[in-house]
Amino acid sequence: MSEALRPMVKSRLYEQVLERLRAHVTEAGLSAGDRLPAERDLAASLGVSRASVKQAIVVLEVQGLVEARHGGGTYLVRDTLDVEPVEQLVERRKRLPEVLEAREALETKLAELAAERRTDAELETIREALDFMRDEIAEGANGVEGDRRFHAAVTAAAHSSLLADFMKTIAQQITESRTESLRQPGRPSRSLAQHTAIYEAIAAGDAKKAAAAMRKHVRTVAKVRLLTWVPED
Amino acid sequence: MSEALRPMVKSRLYEQVLERLRAHVTEAGLSAGDRLPAERDLAASLGVSRASVKQAIVVLEVQGLVEARHGGGTYLVRDTLDVEPVEQLVERRKRLPEVLEAREALETKLAELAAERRTDAELETIREALDFMRDEIAEGANGVEGDRRFHAAVTAAAHSSLLADFMKTIAQQITESRTESLRQPGRPSRSLAQHTAIYEAIAAGDAKKAAAAMRKHVRTVAKVRLLTWVPED
DNA sequence: CCGGTCAAGTGGCTCAGCCACTATGCCACC
DNA sequence: GGTGGCATAGTGGCTGAGCCACTTGACCGG
């Protein structure tokens, strides 16, 4: 435990920027959906380079606290930039099984409706999402954006604004489970295969088969997720 | 949920770099302590700018998977760059209370011994750690490095290689609880005050008071941490 | 009122370069 | 022999300028 052997660790610049950003959000009373100052402005007012500001924003991005839209600004996802306390994270995990049950009910019905009601244009959009996910995986990404698009396209094709609204209320939690699920080795390609099966059923107009395929898919995701949760000692 | 309204989200470049880095570590069979290629080399071989490589490395840094030493290269902390599965994280949380109990026992005794055995030079090192943490907090950081140095200095001043070895075996888990604890609002300054009390007792050679101050400090940390753990439904 | 166009604003990314720090090997000196 | 100092190359930290792609909103013509 000799001290002298350890390197001198100065805090990195981006960490200080992070602190200032958190403080700014708190002081300015910003809340979810509000826009952060532009990177150039932040760099100027903090007296650092844009690259350092960007590093800080990347950190906030991977922590899911901020969403940077190319050309459109950077937006707050929550009311604060503080990392979520473990307590709340555990709390949310406990509610997750319910969310996944709800998702199964909703998406199964959505797939069924989509098979019956989809227009050719909507079918095409679903297929594009499939292609997009395939490209993502080929590039080495996990396909999370393609996955999101696929489910969004199916939802749109079902032409049920009520079911779509329900989906919206659990969208955030679904996003989280999606990311975690697709991080499992081998998951992206298996998920793509299941999407393909759903697509084919919808393309064929086979409502029953589409519902079954979607149910199987959602249950797979739920299973992966539940394995990571240990409810008690 | 119309798809066309959503921005075209191409995966950010740094995310792709991240994937390639993970793959490289796996394929090259690198393990903890090994050095990653230099940023310039990575940028060249991946065909991206150094800024993008750096963004990816910053992500790995905040995830604790990598340690970048200014001028000395970037090193692997674990044998992999994959984020820790939630399952293992939960497992470790369950063991944490034991670790904190052990820490209380060890550090209390270490403080006591330090008060009796410390040399003037060692006392000076402890004071420097205190000053360092104060500066960190003044700069807006959370003081985690100063905290680490303080406890390391006290351990060294105790002149007990056996106790020091015991501390080493739980060092990793202590580091994690340290980081999390100091993230709580107001914690850094309160922690600094407790450190000061410990320092003064050691400086005065008051073993009993030093032990008591250290016990109080460690228990405070343990309390903060335990609040975040919900053992059952 | 609608739809198209255009300019300003913004994030994504690159390039070139300087600085601070580290690691290494060499060399003078003891 | 080895020990300490020192130069040098390598490396991460950070900057500034700049280009591109995309979004946004205002403006204008129909």
Automatic annotation (TrEMBL), chains A, B:
Q: Which domain of life is it from?
A: Bacteria
One Pfam family this sequence matches: GntR
Query: Which SUPFAM superfamilies does UniProt cross-reference here?
Result: GntR ligand-binding domain-like (SSF48008), Winged helix' DNA-binding domain (SSF46785)
| Classification via CDD domains | WHTH_GntR (cd07377)
Write down the SMART domains for this protein, in alphabetical order.
Answer: FCD, HTH_GNTR
The HTH gntR-type domain covers 11-79
The protein's UniProt keywords, in alphabetical order, are: DNA-binding, Transcription, Transcription regulation
Residues in the signal sequence: none
InterPro entries, alphabetized:
GntR_C, TF_FadR/GntR_C, Tscrpt_reg_HTH_GntR, WH-like_DNA-bd_sf, WH_DNA-bd_sf
Q: What is this protein called?
A: GntR family transcriptional regulator
